[in-house]
Amino acid sequence: MSADIRNQFETSGQGHVFQFFDSLNASQQEQLLQQAEAIDLKELSDLVNTLVLGDGDDHINFEGMTPAPYTPLPDAGGDSELWSQAESVGEQALRDGRVAAFTPAGGQGTRLGYDGPKGTFAVTPIVKKSLFQVFAEKIKAASTRYGVTIPWYIMTSQGNHEATVRFFEENDFFGLDPDSVTHFAQGTMPAVDFDGKIILADKDTIALSPDGHGGSLRALVRSGSIADMEARGIDCVCFFQVDNPMVRCIDPEFIGFHVMGESELSSKACLKAYPKEKVGVFAEIDGKTQVIEYSDLPDELAEATEANGDLVYRAGSIAIHIFSRSLIARVGGDDASVKLPFHRADKKIPTVDAAGDPVAPSEPNGVKFEMFGFDALPFAKNPVVIETARADDFSPVKNAEGIDSPESSRQDQLRQFARWAIAADYDIEVDETGLPAFEFEVSPLYATNAKIFAERVAESRPEITAGTVLDVN
Ligand code: UTP
């Protein structure tokens, strides 16, 4: 077997992967061979030819591109009856047990610079709950409200799988039934240098990296999660990223629009804060809804406005979706005609030199290949896009400081708690940005939106002062 694999790599121009092979001990040789065997050399060579040696294959046809239609919020001119109808339909789908939660949590979180799975990062203002705990409590709260079990599927990666599972075990799954929480690791792709040669992370190790959040579709299929969903009667899969504690991950209105639209992939859009904000936008090309990345959108289109001054391409993608189970099964399966494309990301990839000594590059030295979840949009029947208010759904923890950081997210959570309290007639002093003068925290088990908050405080009106934590006992 060893000679076969080495020959295949030699023929594909990747024989250097075994340059240290003869100096390795038997278990190191075995590890390298196992990693090598899992690589699809034909797929890799196609990717190298198009994305590394060629000029890429994403030529976007901007001629004839139009903004994708979306359903505006009631206070932005949307039909409030339609929104209430969506809420009822979504609540029924929840009661019928059709809904699951899904979080891709396999990312490496390099921008945050936190040593551990990102979901274990503490985010709430006072209790310092982890991201995973916040989501678990939102899922538990919705399960209780609708009298069902909402299963949660979490995609990890090889590098953080064990630590993630341990975190859930050590925390008793945050009160969820362990049988309804599934962890599985996503696939990997080898990294290559700018000549398309596979990079060695060490003498006995190929530089492998997670295959992007779009890898979740095939990982959901390969892990058996799609079959598990089918057995449980789940057909709506609420997709949200691991770094956004504000997400209304189980949102009846959103589920309702998805169901009413007979959609296979629904998305939430936030209005862009300014023309060149770094978010993708929803657009339609040749009748297909797509997300166009900010880096691909020409300036004149990013800045184009309508007669009333609104941006033409204003619906920004915030990576909150509902996938139908059927779409995941189709796109994550073996049918080559509906596969997600790979994208190229240039990165600093630790490696070894010709003598086998470690090298930590200070500049990008290679390419990782990643799939993006939103690339499933063109394959989806009846895609639906609805507007959401940023303040209600989106304040991710991406960077160590500044925009989208732990501090900006902490403040956004406080603003949200203050809005809920003020709407329920509490006298809370806030500054001009809506930030309350003191910290308090609302557990997702207590309330996950203003309506539920108002219901709660109508039952027993708790005092809210500095340091108050509203929770259920
Ligand atoms: P990001 O694009 O923010 O990437 O992921 P990241 O790896 O977490 O962070 P940086 O870029 O290194 O700083 C968005 C979401 O997709 C998941 C992440 O865990 C996060 O929920 N993701 C990303 C995966 O599950 N797998 C991947 O391969 C990449």
Describe the structure concisely for a colleague.
With 473 residues, the chain is of the alpha/beta class. It has 14 helices and 21 strands. Helices cover 31% and strands 18% of the residues.
Would you write up a description of this structure?
With 473 residues, the protein is of the alpha/beta class. It has two domains: 38-404, Spore Coat Polysaccharide Biosynthesis Protein SpsA, Chain A (Alpha-Beta Complex), CATH 3.90.550; 405-473, no CATH class. 31% of the residues lie in helices and 18% in strands. The protein is built from 14 helices and 21 strands. It has helices at 2-11, 26-37, 41-52, 80-95, 131-146, 161-170, 215-222, 225-232, 252-260, 299-303, 325-331, 390-393, 406-423, 450-459; strands at 66-67, 99-104, 152-156, 181-185, 188-190, 192-193, 200-202, 205-206, 208-210, 236-239, 265-271, 281-285, 288-292, 315-324, 343-347, 351-352, 358-359, 366-370, 384-387, 441-442, 469-470. Strands 4-3-2-10-14-11-19 form a seven-stranded mixed β-sheet, sandwiched between helices. Helix 4 packs across helix 9 and helix 13 (406-423) crosses helix 14 (450-459). It is globular and about 75 Å long. The chain starts with a helix and ends with a strand. The structure holds uridine 5'-triphosphate.
What is the CATH superfamily of the largest domain? Spore Coat Polysaccharide Biosynthesis Protein SpsA, Chain A
CATH architecture of the largest domain: Alpha-Beta Complex
Strand content: 15-25%
- How many domains comprise the coordinates? 2
**CATH topology descriptor of the largest domain:** Spore Coat Polysaccharide Biosynthesis Protein SpsA, Chain A
Radius of gyration: 24 Å
Oligomer: single chain
